[in-house]
Amino acid sequence: MRLSLGAIPYLWPRQTVEDFYQLHVNSPVDVIYLGETVCAKRRTLKIAEWIDLAKELATEGKQIVLSTLTLIEAKSDMAGVKRLCNNGDLLVEANDMGAVQLMAEQSLPFVTGPSLNIYNAYTLKLLYKQGLMRWVMPVELNAETLKDILADAAAMGIGDKIETEVFSFGRLPLAYSARCFTARFHNVPKDDCQLVCQNYPEGLAMDSQEGLDFFTINGIQTQSGHIQNLLPHWQQMQQIGVDMMRISPQPHYMVEIIKRHYQVLQGDSMATDLQPWLTAAACDGYWCGKPGMDYIAVET
Length: 300
What we know:
By secondary structure, the protein is of the alpha/beta class. Helices cover 30% and strands 21% of the residues. Strands 1-2-3-4-5-6-7-11 form an eight-stranded parallel barrel, surrounded by four helices. The two termini are 15 Å apart.
C-alpha cells in the first residue's frame, strides 16, 4: 500500500499553506492532493495559484492531484472547477459530479473523492467508462462492504483497473451545507462572514448536550469530533485490496503521523500507536461496522 496526503480542509494563512506543502513534498507520502475543497469564499490561493503550486510540487517526484470543490453553489464556483479540470497537465480529484462530467468530456483520467456516493461496483464500472482511475471510499462504509464491492468489481473485470483509497486518518468529512455554521456561531451573515473560520485552524468543536465532542464545524462542512485512525487495521486493508491510505492534514504533528504510517507499511507493526499525536479522541467505528465515533481497534 501507498500513502497519500489529502487536501487541507481548513482555512490556513497563505504562508502556512505554502510551508506545509514544501515540507511534505519531501515526506514519505506518494500522492499529494491540494486545492480548496470546502468553501469558494476561501481564496488564500486563487485557482491559478493552486495550479502553479501543484505544477511546482510535481517536479519533486510526487503524484500531485488538484482537488475540486465539494459543494457547487454558484456559476462562479463551477467556473473555478472548470479551470482546475482544464489545467492541462495534472490529475484531478472530482468531488462532485460536475467535475466528473468535465473530465469525462475531455476523456481525461480522474480520481473521485469520498463525497461521491459510490456504494457498489456498478457505479465503479460506470465511472470507469468515463475515466475513473482511483476512488476514495465514502467514509461511512465499512470494511466488509468494501470487500464485497471490490470482489464484485473483480468479477466485472475492472478490479485491477481502478485503485482504491481509504480515508485512514483525520477528522471525517461528514456533510456539507449551503449555510455556514461557523459564521452562524459568530452571528454574522454568510455573505459577509469575514472568514471567521480562519480563527479555527482545526475546526470549531461542537459538543453534544452530554458534553461529548460530537462534531467539528468547519465553515459549511461538518466533520467528526473524533479523529479517524485506521492505522491498526492496515493489514486488513491490504488483504481486502486497498491501494492507498489517505492522511488528512491537521495543524500539528503531521511529520510524526506520516512517519508512523510509513514505518507500519514498511513492516514495523509496533508503530501503530498514534495516541501521543492525536488532538482529539480516536475513532474507527464506521470501518468496523459500528457507530462512527466508536473506537474498536484491536488489529496491528
